[in-house]
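Quick one: structure tokens for this chain, please?
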Amino acid sequence: MKKGETEAPDALPRHVAIIMDGNGRWAKEKGKPRSSGHRAGAEALRRIVPACNELGIKFLTVYAFSVDNWKRPKAEVAFLFRLLQHYLHAETKTLVKEGVFLRVIGDVERFPSGLQREIGRAISETSNGRKLALTIALGYGSQEEIARATKQIAAKVRRGELQPTEIEKTTFERELSTAGLPPVDLLIRTGGEQRLSNFLLYQSSYAELYFMEKYWPDFEKEDLAEALKEYARRDRRFGALREDK
């Protein structure tokens, strides 16, 4: 391996999810406006997408804007929308080159029409990607997603399309916005907080959790590789006993 290269462990998670936290605190500690932190956070995502390809990750889901982020000041929310629209416009060609297939989950209909169009364009142009499935959670909340899936199943029962006795785990999973994605194997949260914040609660039922103090704008490929190594050291039994017990 060449100097400076980062090696991934043999046991890799299929699906990595990241709560990209700490943009505002990163900016505050540097005496900069919060907008600078969000810009730096977008740059971090630019670094991590190709890093996932290099390290062998097939599915990446990132928490970009939660349903609770609507509570933030209107000026900050508007800036985040402009930043996201710019990111998608500027990075779509790179995503295509990297073999990325983009999908977006969450209540996108609440977003500005220009951003909605940019999301649709980026999804369309990356539809042939096969190396990495990148899912961006926007206006997303897991509790809201679960409630919506339950309503959709109830509506099918009411219409006679589904019998209550036919409802199984897979029935429910097909109604989630992450339908078709494997369960989350490794969930990373930057910024020092140790909670899930309404992110992929169902999908992360057996995920390994990895919390780190570093703020998201400082997150590098080496940090991802270290999280993967920690994942490889974990003993994942999914409720079963260890073989040596």
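The two ends are 38 Å apart (CA to CA).
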